[in-house]
Every structure is written in C-alpha cells, then in structure tokens.
Amino acid sequence: MDSVLWQEREGTLTERPNQRTFAFLKPDTVKNRLVGEVLSRLERKGFTFKELRLHQITHKEAESLYNVHKGKPFFQELVDHVTSGPVVLMVLQAPNAVETLRKVIGATNPLTAEPGTIRGDLSVSITANVIHASDTAENAKRESSIFSLDAP
Ligand code: CMP
C-alpha cells in the first residue's frame, strides 16, 4: 500500500501545510525545451515557486549533491550529465511538498514511471530523467544549501 494511504489509515499522517522542497530541472530538460512544460505542470498541481534560478552545476557541487551514490556504477555518468549544461534550480512550496513532488515526478527509471507523471511522460533515460527532487525534508535542506538556497 502507498505510504500516504497507510499513514492516513493509521491516523499518523502529519500534515505540513507550507512545506518547502528542493528540485532542479536537469540539462536534458533545458536542451529539449521542456522547461515551460515541466514548470507549467508544477504550477497546475499547486506548487508555489519560492526560488527559481538558471545555474551551471560545477563538478564539486554535483559530487556533493550525489555523494550517497559515490562508488555506484552510474555515478560518473550522472555527474557528467548534470554538469553538461545549465539546470533550473528551484525551491517549491505546497502542502506536504516533499512527498507530493516525488509523486508528480514519478519513479526514477522511466521504464517504471507511470504515464501521467513527469518522468513517465517526458523521458526514456534513467540518467537524463528530466528532474531531480529531494526525497526527504532533511535532504531538501542539505541539497538546497549546496546552492545557497534554503528549502525547508
Ligand atoms: P535523481 O533523482 O537525480 O537521483 C539520482 C540519479 O541517479 C537518478 O535521478 C538517476 O538519474 C541516476 N541514476 C542512473 N542510474 C541509476 C540507477 N541504476 N539507479 C538509480 N539512479 C540512477
């Protein structure tokens, strides 16, 4: 069962009315001229942009951002991709923003991302998968601080 449904059923769901989270549109999204499409989907869902900035990620920033993946076979390809061109950094606000955004984005692998999700509709690559979003509030704080942004 989906974790939100489970928490609802158990009465343990914590509502976070104005939660903030961190995300960025990857270089493939800028190159493929999909920035407007993705931002539009996020706006229509109800997210408020608290920060929005074009940025060229450095190798140092990329290695810090993805430090949990260091040593994995896809690490270098991932770092090379996110440093290959400009990205769009953002801090988004919505009720339960962290979990809501992860649902709107869909699974990491476009092969398993459901149609209707951003990755399910707009990507066929696991590395160039349109958008990254923090998976917890703690990571939103850590990841946003790499770019001198303040998510939560
Ligand atoms: P992202 O949300 O940016 O977080 C880590 C990224 O690693 C992920 O999206 C993918 O783009 C990338 N990645 C590449 N290969 C894999 C893999 N096998 N498993 C998980 N993530 C992968």
Structural class: alpha+beta
The amount of helix comes to 40-55%
Mean pLDDT: 94
CATH architecture: 2-Layer Sandwich
The SSE string, one letter per element, is: HEHHEHHEHHEH
| Tally of helical runs | 8
Strand ordering within the main sheet: 2-3-1-4
The largest sheet, given as strand count, sense and whether it forms a barrel, is: 4 strands, antiparallel
Instruction: Pick out the low-confidence regions.
Output: none
Tally of domains? 1
CATH superfamily: Nucleoside diphosphate kinase-like domain
CATH class: Alpha Beta
Gross morphology is globular
Question: What features would you describe in this structure?
Answer:
With 152 residues, the protein is α+β, with helices and mostly antiparallel strands. The protein has a single domain (16-146), classed as Alpha-Beta Plaits (2-Layer Sandwich), CATH 3.30.70.141. It has eight helices and four strands. Strands 2-3-1-4 form a four-stranded antiparallel beta sheet. The mean pLDDT is 94. Adenosine-3',5'-cyclic-monophosphate binds next to loops.
Précis, in short:
The chain is of the alpha+beta class and 152 residues long. Helix content is 41%, strand content 17%.
Task: Map the helices and strands.
Elements: H1 3-10, E1 19-25, H2 27-31, H3 35-45, E2 48-55, H4 59-65, H5 75-82, E3 87-94, H6 97-105, H7 118-122, E4 131-133, H8 137-146
Antiparallel strand pairs: 1-3, 1-4, 2-3
The structure holds adenosine-3',5'-cyclic-monophosphate.
Distinctive features:
152 residues, alpha+beta, Alpha-Beta Plaits, 4-stranded antiparallel β-sheet, 8 helices, 41% helix, globular, binds adenosine-3',5'-cyclic-monophosphate
